[in-house]
Amino acid sequence: MEKFKAIRLFLKVVEADSFAKAANLLDLTPSAVSKSVAALESELGVQLLKRSTRSLSLTQDGAMFYERCRQLSDEYDEIESALQSAYQVPQGRLRVDMPMVVARYVVLPAIPAFLRRYPQLQLELGVNDRPIDLIREGYDAVVRIGKPKDSNLLIQPLSTLYLSTYAAPAYLAEHGEPQTPADLLRHNCLTYVYEPSGKLAEWQFDCQGKRLSLAVTGNFFSNDPAALIDAAVAGIGIHQPASFTVTKPVAAGALKPILTGYCTTGLPVSLLYPPTRHLSAKMRVFTEFIKAQFQAMAPAA
Description:
This protein has helices at about 1-15, 20-25, 30-45, 60-85, 100-105, 110-115, 135, 170-175, 225-235, 245-250, 280-295, and strands at about 50, 55-60, 90-100, 120-125, 140-145, 155-160, 165, 190-195, 200, 205, 210-215, 220, 240, 255-260, 265-275. The chain is α/β, with parallel strands linked by helices. The chain folds into 3 domains: about 1-80, Arc Repressor Mutant, subunit A, CATH 1.10.10.10; about 90-150 and about 275-295, D-Maltodextrin-Binding Protein, domain 2; about 165-260, 3-Layer(aba) Sandwich (D-Maltodextrin-Binding Protein, domain 2). A hairpin with a 2-residue loop joins strand 10 (about 205) and strand 11. The radius of gyration is 29 Å and the shape is elongated. The model has no long low-confidence stretch (mean pLDDT about 90).
């Protein structure tokens, strides 16, 4: 450990380009720093620094030693930080933004238990689909559905979201059941609308290995998944939600799966956060929490 301390002193001297400046930064005397580096040179049997009254420079051996020790020191700091983070108590404010469907059906049901487990954590949950500048807007992370567009963020895959098509038995009795995705163009379709753009979500199908996107039409749109499901249950029209959001109405017979022979394209769900060497304790536990929630509903996702 003493040798490692001496190496750290040597690194600081090189970076400060002065024994006196390094000593001041480390709250030591210049004499103590100089003696430590001299002892390190003696133990190694090589001269690391060329000294003069006005300048300080690395020898060839010193330059090689500095580069290798700088790497080792950085790796040690990284390991130490990771270990400390693992045992830190998650605390403080955590700002996370996510789509309504993830917030309502995946995260919110388990939030009480999560906050009881981490009582020093304050969770601020934003519900949006819009692009967010994490750094400028002060968010710790965002959850997004679909292929992530921001390559400057770190991406943690969470799950794959599958969409299925449903209608109330009463609607099908009155209007008939579509047999192919193209038949939907003649039906009233209840569609998710992205805010603030107002763009309607296209419906997705996999037809014989080819992806098909349909711009369906209808008389009711919403950015609230629950409102669209309620409208479908009421028999207003056909809806294509995430499968895990309609397990109860399907089990109760209020909604019937249709077009079951046409798989829908799975959409990746990801957690995005700014580049960092180590996750903070609060981000680490939230990442573990949301991954566990998606895994718990995997058969229905």
